[in-house]
Amino acid sequence: MTHIHVIHENAAWLEPLAAALDRQGLPWRDWFLDRAVFDLSRPPPEGVFYNRMSASSHTRNHRYAAELTAAVLAWLERHGARVVNGSRALDLEISKARQYAALEAAGIRTPDTVIVAGKELLVEAARRRFGEAPFIVKPNRGGKGLGVRLFHSPGSLADHLDSPDYEPSVDGLHLLQQYVRAPVPLITRAEFIGGRFMYAVEVDTSDGFELCPADACAVGDAFCPAGAEPRAKFTIIDDIDPALKQRYQAFLAANAIGVAGIEFITDADGAVYTYDVNTNTNYNPDAEARAGRSGMAELARYLGTELERAPHPPAKRSPLPLSASDRLRGEGYSGLLPRPALAGRASG
């Protein structure tokens, strides 16, 4: 039996997809790639490989998970395996600078950005590019909004760099970025499965945080207008601007990205800035419940369809990875020994 092989390093993020795959009776395997042993001289097992490796993996003590995954994806692709979100997707996931270059090449506007190698160069670079205007500082490789901050002057950045709150970027690169102020506290995240638009989520940022022009940036005390009816933080909408949607889908096709969430913000003049492409996308369950949608169910159906289409070469292949319980003991197949995250949850 062929399987859907889910490559990841975060068990909590895998749970909703695992449940969706189980509900649809799809055979799948858990490839938890923080540590593993692979024999690259042997071909991989048959099936479809779905890469969910995250740029923030290092924050969960999985410092080299992304590097390991890059090697594994190259091995899979060298053998002609069907990989959803392969090497190119991972490359963009772990570098916002390369992400922005790819977006601009596709005719998609991104915020003005300066890349800086060297902590001691940040303040002067910010002063030269943005003067006394507000700007964003973020790590080139981040995730979850970690290290993303809004500064109102180079002097405030200098104070931060000398404080215990400063954290260096894992790849040694920081980005200084134009601050895009929206007329309303709102950003939009467009979700794509199979390279096609599924739905979008409007994210209300009025609770003291702004997704400006990146992930969450704390900018002060939470703001709650007296007497106002609170808006749900996440609200699903059915569509976005058709031209923007078409450009996003072309961008995903050009970069071999099957599954992604793309975030953008609109300024007071109506200009749209795209600031993040997340190839390890998750879906908000409360918003989906209100809208009667399920991104993970749609993702599971897509992976099931890809599994049906996957090639089944007649040549003898390596055995499938062990079941979760067997892999915990490290028995059997020595060519592939990833550590399972969800013991007992591999199916089929």
Describe this structure in words.
This protein has 348 residues and is an alpha+beta fold. It has 10 helices and 15 strands. The strands form 4 sheets. A 5-stranded antiparallel β-sheet has the order 13-10-9-14-15, sandwiched between helices. Helix 1 links the parallel strand 1 and strand 2. Helix 1 crosses helix 9 and helix 5 runs antiparallel to helix 6. The longest helix is centred in the last third of the chain and has 15 residues. The chain is globular and about 60 Å long. About 13% of the residues have low confidence.
Q: What is the secondary structure topology, with strand pairs?
A:
Layout: E1 3-8, H1 11-23, E2 28-32, E3 47-51, H2 65-78, E4 82-84, H3 87-93, H4 96-105, E5 113-117, H5 122-130, E6 135-139, E7 149-151, H6 154-161, E8 173-178, E9 186-193, E10 196-204, E11 209-211, E12 216-218, E13 234-237, H7 242-254, E14 259-266, E15 272-278, H8 285-291, H9 295-309, H10 324-329
Parallel strand pairs: 1-2, 1-3, 3-4
Antiparallel strand pairs: 5-8, 6-7, 6-8, 9-10, 9-14, 10-13, 11-12, 14-15
Helix pairs in contact: 1-9, 5-6
Number of E-state strands: 15
User: What would you call the shape?
Assistant: globular
Compressed to H and E, one letter per element, the order equals: EHEEHEHHEHEEHEEEEEEHEEHHH
Helical content class: 25-40%
List the keywords:
four-stranded parallel beta sheet; 10 helices; 348 residues; single chain; five-stranded antiparallel beta sheet; 29% helix
